[in-house]
Amino acid sequence: MVDPLIEKYPEMNAFRKGNIMARERMIVLYDLSAATKGLVIGTGNKTEIILGYTTLFGDSACAINPIGDLYKTQIRQLAAHLSVPDVIIQKPPSADLWKGQTDEGEMGITYEEVDRLLFFLVEAGKSVEECMKLGFSRDFIRSVFTRARQNRFKRSLAPIALISGKPIDENIFDQQV
Q1: In angstroms, what CA-CA distances link 176 with 167, 169, 171, 173?
Q2: Domain 3-156 CATH class label
Q3: What is the pLDDT of residues 28-70, one digit of tens each?
């Protein structure tokens, strides 16, 4: 389904191709959800969400995300608890958009390392200085912060230009009719 578009632009890089494939995959899933009157379930975890390792309107699109508040390492622990085969748990995380692609290879960091940092920052409320005392380098922390900041837009709905001067108040629709 994506080949005609990709073939039209022979200079297209892997990043663009990957985004097209991720979005096309979501089109298929949403069509199947409409056909079966089901919901698209999200598979993004907290680590991917914070780092922005997701395609907007691609793998980040879903009706509900039951694992979105679990770090990648917690997903692996849950999988082990549920007796998921080791071959699956130990498989290098990948969007599988091209041969040899891995999340950690693309990002240049391991989930284990970044999850430890994110846990201390997000869950434990540690400061940068406290994290450095725990053994994290300033450069590593900076790289995680840079990635999280650059991808902040993926973690919220698109801003709406307020032209009327009155935003939508969802509480209006909670009234009894």
Answers
A1: 21, 15, 11, 8
A2: alpha beta
A3: 999 999 999 999 999 999 999 999 999 999 989 999 999 999 9
